[in-house]
Predict the structure.
Amino acid sequence: MSAGDLPAARRIAQRLDQAHPGNPRVLTLLGRIWLSWPVFGRWRAESLLTRAGKLDPDDPEPFYYLGLVGIALRGDDGEWVARRGLTRALAL
């Protein structure tokens, strides 16, 4: 596997998710991978990072990346997602 090999990274992270379902660190990793995916992965990243944030509300990492998802999405929807993530990350 080389740097930037998103399909291989996703496969590894999905195996981790199968082995440790509901682990917020694994969900955050998967969310980061989907965020790097062009366009269609951003909404998947949003749902994974939101779930990770609900499972571990004291960890700022999923909220920070949720903010980055919003920035990548742009527009009104993106602003809403970014605000939701970054506000929580800054509060922590």
Summary: The helical segments are 6-19, 24-36, 41-55, 60-73, 75-91.
